[in-house]
Amino acid sequence: MSVSRPRLKMDLSSPTVWRSDGKNDPKATEMSSLACKTLALSQGATFEDRENYVARKLKNTKPRPPITSWWGLSGEVYWFQLILLTMVPTVGLIGAYYTPLRWETGLFAVLYYFYTGLGITAGYHRLWSHRCYNASNPLKYFLALGGVGAVQGSIKWWSRGHRAHHRFTDTKLDPYNAKDGFWYSHIGWLIIKPRIRPGTADVSDLARDHVVRWQHKFYFPLLFTMGFVVPTIIPWLFWDDLRGGYIYAALLRLTFVHHSTFCVNSLAHWLGEARFDDKNTPRDHVITALVTIGEGYHNFHHQFPMDYRNAIKWYQYDPTKWFIWICQQLRLASHLKTFSDNEVRKGELTMQLKRLRQQQDHIVWPQDSNDLPVVSWESYQKQSAERPLILISGLIHDVSTFIDEHPGGAPIVARYIGKDATTAFFGGVYEHSSAAHNLLAMKRVGILHGGMPHGADDRIIPPSQRLWVARYTELGSSSACSESEPSSTE
Ligand SMILES: [Zn+2]
Ligand SMILES: [Zn+2]
What are the TM regions of this chain, as residue ranges (predicted)? Predict the structure, then answer.
């Protein structure tokens, strides 16, 4: 399906574009030079692109000294985070060994896991880090409290890091750079101080959000209340299970929610398929989606970060998307952002074409007619006497390895040695199959001087090469820089 739109007629080969009234239009000249600069960028890059920015930043940043001793290591550890991330699961597991699990507490722990997890995925991530939708105040407070119960820092701190992750993905400025290894991106970055200070990202919009300011200001009391007190007290008050609440709903639930989020930085950059772009490490996988409340379609997410969805297919697991959609139905959320299907499909098609190109590169193709020797009629006649050569559509084919395999029998082929078999091959005797056309093209050995009929591409190009995956550098230069139609302004 093509989209019809007025054609922009512009001759980019000329430095100046002239208006039809004969006056020079400086705006058009500027546009023309901009278009050529854009083209130059895409072809070789002289501008400061992201890599240059990162390289410049790294050059001007003094790295922390390498850790050379155990004593030196102690000064390089985030102790609060190390204690939290080791003590919570340790005490939780030992406690679980001595504490029977009541079904009410188990169910509550799972529900509280989803609540605090959604605080991160629907709140910290899609609402505040990426502004994927607008939330009403009750929803904002609900998510801010849930997120603080996941004990992963304040919204402001978390979002700044996450925006830097998107801005500097897979570079030394990425706070949880997947290129530094699975475990570093999973948990190492939270425990060991980075050798290079991570890049920054703008969060000035969050400073204007009163819920973000409130949560940042009261972060520690809120963390203590939502992370530990509430999940302990509810089982105690309603079914008299104080210890079970503390062990299962507070400590073990927190361990699960921690590693669930950490998997977005590690597993989602390691496991699965690059369905929309393979420039960087983010991947799509259902397992990651299952353990991260729907954040597993991370390749899509890095391409379309402001889309409120991570999974775009109805059958893919993305409860965070479903939650946001339900909130919209309840008038608690609005302005849910989605990228247009057209743009999404471009990425998908590009990756499909890349895979097809790889397949194409592993197939042996016939020689291009431009690379074949040009042979005179006399020479063709002479050489046909020595080996079975047949002329079809101006191309000379050596059928010595095939003549005995010909499904129609060898005599019929032999009848055309040294002759022009074009009509016979194209239906005069038999309307050959596409496979036969493809095979014939493999037998090309020469081109008859003056023998190739003009405009016979559909006969010369075998069916297997009519839809060809070509890189833009392989296309004709004329199609790369100017419209085929002459400009009406000339
Ligand atoms: Zn990521
Ligand atoms: Zn993100």
Answer: 78-98, 110-127, 139-158, 218-239
For residues 378 and 336, state if they share a domain: no
Structural domain includes residue 19 = no
358 is a domain residue: no
Q: What is the CATH number of the domain that holds 447?
A: 3.10.120.10
Rounded to the nearest whole angstrom, what is the distance from the C-alpha of residue 124 to the centroid of ligand 2?
10
Please report which ligand is nearest the Cα atom of 126: 2
Distance (Å) from CA 328 to ligand 2 centroid: 21
26: helix, strand or coil: helix
How far the first Cα of the chain sits from its last, in Å, is: 32
What local confidence, expressed as pLDDT, does residue 150 receive?
98
Residue 329 lies in a domain: yes
Are residues 321 and 257 part of one domain? yes
- Please tell me the distance between residue 464's alpha carbon and the centre of ligand 2 in angstroms: 42
Question: Is residue 47 in some structural domain?
Answer: no
Over residues 86-113, the pLDDT tens digits come to 999 999 999 999 999 999 999 999 999 9
Taking CA atoms, 432 is separated from 15, 413, 444, in Å, by 52, 13, 17
Note the ligand closest to the C-alpha atom of 304. Answer: 2
**Residues 313, 448 within the same domain:** no
Mean pLDDT of the chain: 88
341-391 pLDDT per residue, tens = 999 999 999 999 999 999 999 999 999 888 999 999 999 999 999 999 999
Q: How far, in Å, is the centroid of ligand 1 from the Cα of 296?
A: 10
Same domain? 111 vs 241: yes
253-271 residue pLDDT tens: 999 999 999 999 999 999 9
> Are 235 and 119 within one domain?
yes
State the DSSP string of 153-207: --HHHHHHHHHHHHHTTTSTTSTT-GGG-HHIIIIIHHHBPPSSPPP----HHHH
Question: Considering only CA atoms, which of 147, 129, 115, 112 is closest in space to residue 222?
Answer: 147
From the CA of 299, the nearest ligand is 1
Q: How far is the CA of 134 from the centre of ligand 2 (A)?
A: 16
Domain that holds residue 175: 74-350
Task: Please give the pLDDT value at position 454.
Answer: 63
Q: What is the domain count for the chain?
A: 2
Q: Dump pLDDT digits (tens) for 210-265.
A: 999 999 999 999 999 999 999 999 999 999 999 999 999 999 999 999 999 999 99
CA of 106 to the centre of ligand 1 (A): 31
Q: Are residues 289 and 258 in the same domain?
A: yes
Output the pTM of the full model: 0.82
Instruction: Give whole-number Cα distances, 119 to 127, 141, 151, 290, 434, in Å.
Output: 10, 10, 10, 17, 58
pLDDT at 111: 98
- Quick one: 308 and 412 in the same domain? no
Q: Are residues 156 and 263 in the same domain?
A: yes
